[in-house]
């Protein structure tokens, strides 16, 4: 008779390999070099943190109406307080800023509705991508339902930064997907058009494109025919970032094994069906880090609109630091700008990591 | 191909031929991968294709649903010629199921979604009906309890059985198998072969590229041996294994049967 095979029971790992003490030992004190690096890092932190805390918090002045109120040795945050509205809304009329807030709240509510399970996601997406922009546009620009008209030249601050960033991101993504598919396509004309577009745009700095959009295009257009500078800049930013997006997505498409294309073909799916249902969901998931990288880059690149005379968050802050009654507040201004940009970019980065985790289906690719 | 040739071919093979290769040639660049393939498969026939690697056996099989294009000759599947006409290709692909060596399940979809994708989008079947059918086929391959998992959570053998069920969900008239067990651990080969044997017994037309000679002996109506892009020999399994005609076939059989 054969001997019965019984697997040995699984045992817990040794105590000194788990827990906080083990973590410190393994990660901070594992070798003489590691011990030195740990101590050195603590020393640097000790040198840096106290002065920054003292300047920024302990001896700082947080409220006040003029430079004279800043009597402490530290930062003069009163400057940010006084200019806060301009930093947020630019020169948008004070009594009308509720329109921007309303649009923001509406967007948050709409996006938040995605969590609700019973809502039809397709209709909601259409609502956000198609209906919302129209509502938002009329809220911002006015001219209907008795809303006062606000010229786009008055739009500015964080509002303008967000507008450029969000529109750029939302519009460049689908365009990038199409360009990437076009570049991969077997149709020679579509392929050449996409390659020429991508390579041309990538070969030119964004500043040049913005300059072209705001200064050159009006020169070429016939007399009397002109369209809004903000719109031209938005189109410039969108095309610029679509070219980068296309290359990121192409990387994802190339990483999908040939077998996936073949399996989709063998089922009788059409080209668009196999792209939308099989290839793109996988390819886009693979390149989320690259896509978010492009988004973050785009968001920060919007600061370049100062070159064509638009005052986004950074532009407004720079203008304010030149105010003769607030001289010497440059550091506070830039610190605030850095903090806001960091918040937005870090937020995007964390959100993308969440999506990546959510889409992880626990598999190796085959 | 001329009309008289076509008529002659039809006469020779009878009306029941569901797949016909007539003087099919294919090149990869300068490499002549299929040379004058003439072969026809009747409805309900089980064909096993074997041969050394690079002999063109996968390529020939993949020409049937035009995953590969041939450059000369004609291939008729179910009476439809496989050429550049996209409509023809899509029509045939609806009726031909395919199982790959590396399963090629869609990793971002659950097992159930993998099975219902084509019925819903290609056959335009209502979702509920597609899911019921998918569950039916999953039960047949004895894997219904895994329906909501993702492919990456299943073993190789389970994934390949899902792939077979996925092919069946299109309710195909022909099933193609391209080395379905070559990427599997030895312990999992049997569970996949069992499903294939069952399918063969139900009368499905099957073209199977495999080196599982036991499978060939049990279910094949004919075994095709290919080398260097040509069909060297095609015969019923009994004759093929016991009395191979060509010395190349004899050598191949001695290599794979006596190791």
Automatic annotation (TrEMBL), chain A:
GO cellular component labels: ATP-binding cassette (ABC) transporter complex
Recorded topology in the membrane: Multi-pass membrane protein
Subcellular location, record wording: Cell inner membrane; Cell membrane
High-level lineage: Bacteria, Pseudomonadati, Pseudomonadota, Gammaproteobacteria, Oceanospirillales
Top-level taxon: Bacteria
Record domain ABC transmembrane type-1: where: 158-352
Keyword Ribonucleoprotein on entry: no
GO BP: amino acid transport
GO molecular function, one term: transmembrane transporter activity
Primary residence: membrane
Membrane-crossing residue ranges in chain numbering: 35-58, 70-92, 98-116, 123-145, 157-181, 193-221, 233-253, 274-296, 333-351
Stored Pfam families: BPD_transp_1 (PF00528)
Family: Belongs to the binding-protein-dependent transport system permease family. HisMQ subfamily.
Protein name as it appears in the record: Amino acid ABC transporter permease
TrEMBL record, chain B:
Annotated CDD domains: ABC_HisP_GlnQ
Boundaries of every ABC transporter domain copy: 19-253
Keyword annotations: Amino-acid transport, ATP-binding, Nucleotide-binding, Transport
InterPro entries the record matches: AAA+_ATPase, ABC_ATPase_HisP-typ, ABC_transporter-like_ATP-bd, ABC_transporter-like_CS, MetN_ABC_transporter-like, P-loop_NTPase
Membrane protein topology class: Peripheral membrane protein
GO function term, MF aspect, one: ATP binding
Keyword Ubl conjugation: no
GO CC, alphabetical: plasma membrane
Entries under PROSITE patterns matching the protein: ABC_TRANSPORTER_1 (PS00211), ABC_TRANSPORTER_2 (PS50893)
Subcellular location: Cell inner membrane
Protein family according to the UniProt entry: Belongs to the ABC transporter superfamily.
Name this polypeptide is given: Arginine ABC transporter ATP-binding protein
Gene encoding the protein: artP
């Amino acid at each position: 008779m054969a001997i019965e095979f019984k697997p040995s029971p699984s045992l817990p790992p040794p105590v000194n390999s788990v827990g906080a003490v083990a973590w410190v030992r393994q990660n901070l004190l594992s070798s003489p070099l590691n011990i030195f690096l740990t101590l050195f890092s603590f020393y640097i932190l000790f040198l840096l943190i106290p002065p920054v805390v003292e300047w920024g918090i302990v001896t700082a002045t947080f409220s006040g109406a003029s430079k004279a109120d800043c009597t402490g040795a530290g930062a003069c945050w009163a400057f940010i307080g006084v200019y806060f509205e301009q930093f947020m809304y630019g020169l948008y009329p004070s009594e009308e800023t509720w329109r921007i807030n309303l649009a923001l709240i509406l967007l948050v509510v709409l996006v938040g509705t995605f969590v609700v399970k019973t809502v039809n996601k397709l209709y909601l997406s259409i609502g956000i991508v198609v209906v919302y922009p129209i509502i938002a546009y009329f809220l911002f620009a006015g001219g209907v339902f008795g809303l006062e008209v606000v010229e786009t030249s008055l739009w500015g601050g964080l509002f303008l930064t967000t507008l450029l960033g969000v529109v750029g991101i939302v519009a460049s993504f689908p365009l990038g997907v199409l360009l990437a598919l076009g570049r991969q396509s077997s149709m020679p004309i579509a392929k050449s058009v996409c390659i020429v577009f991508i390579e041309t745009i990538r070969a030119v700095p964004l500043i040049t494109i913005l300059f072209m959009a705001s200064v050159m295009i009006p020169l070429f257009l016939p007399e009397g025919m002109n369209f809004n500078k903000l719109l031209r800049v938005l189109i410039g930013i969108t095309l610029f970032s679509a070219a980068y997006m296309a290359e990121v997505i192409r990387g994802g498409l190339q990483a999908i094994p040939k077998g996936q294309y073949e399996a989709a073909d063998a089922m009788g799916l059409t080209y668009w069906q196999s792209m939308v249902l099989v290839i793109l969901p996988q390819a886009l998931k693979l390149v989320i880090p690259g896509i978010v990288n492009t988004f973050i880059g785009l968001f920060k690149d919007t600061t370049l609109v100062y070159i064509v005379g638009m005052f986004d968050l950074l532009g407004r802050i720079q203008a304010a630091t030149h105010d003769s009654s607030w001289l010497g507040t440059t550091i506070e201004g830039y610190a605030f700008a850095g903090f806001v940009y960091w918040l937005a970019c870090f937020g995007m980065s964390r959100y993308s990591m969440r999506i990546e985790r959510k889409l992880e289906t626990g598999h190796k690719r085959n | 191909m001329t009309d008289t040739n076509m008529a002659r071919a039809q006469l020779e093979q009878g009306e029941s031929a569901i797949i016909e290769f007539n003087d099919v040639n294919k090149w990869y660049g300068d490499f002549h991968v299929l040379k004058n393939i003439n072969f026809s498969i009747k409805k309900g026939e089980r064909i096993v294709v074997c041969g050394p690697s690079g002999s063109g056996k996968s390529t020939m099989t993949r020409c049937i649903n035009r995953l590969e294009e041939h450059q000369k000759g004609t291939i008729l599947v179910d009476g439809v010629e496989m050429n550049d006409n996209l409509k023809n290709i899509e029509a045939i692909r609806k009726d031909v199921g395919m199982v790959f060596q590396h399963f090629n399940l869609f990793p971002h979809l659950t097992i159930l979604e993998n099975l219902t994708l084509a019925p819903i989008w290609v056959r335009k079947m209502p979702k509920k009906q597609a899911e019921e059918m998918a569950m039916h086929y999953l039960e047949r391959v004895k894997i219904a309890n895994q329906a909501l998992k993702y492919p990456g959570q299943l073993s190789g053998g389970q994934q390949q059985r899902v792939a077979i069920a996925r092919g069946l969900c299109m309710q195909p008239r022909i099933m193609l198998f391209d080395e379905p067990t070559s990427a599997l651990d030895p312990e999992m080969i049997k569970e996949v072969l069992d499903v294939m044997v069952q399918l063969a017994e139900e009368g499905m037309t099957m073209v199977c590229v495999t080196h599982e000679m036991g499978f060939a002996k049990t279910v094949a109506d004919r075994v095709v041996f290919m080398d260097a892009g040509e069909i060297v020999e095609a015969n019923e399994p009994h004759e093929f294994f016991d009395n191979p005609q060509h010395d190349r076939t004899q050598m191949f059989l001695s290599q794979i049967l006596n190791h």
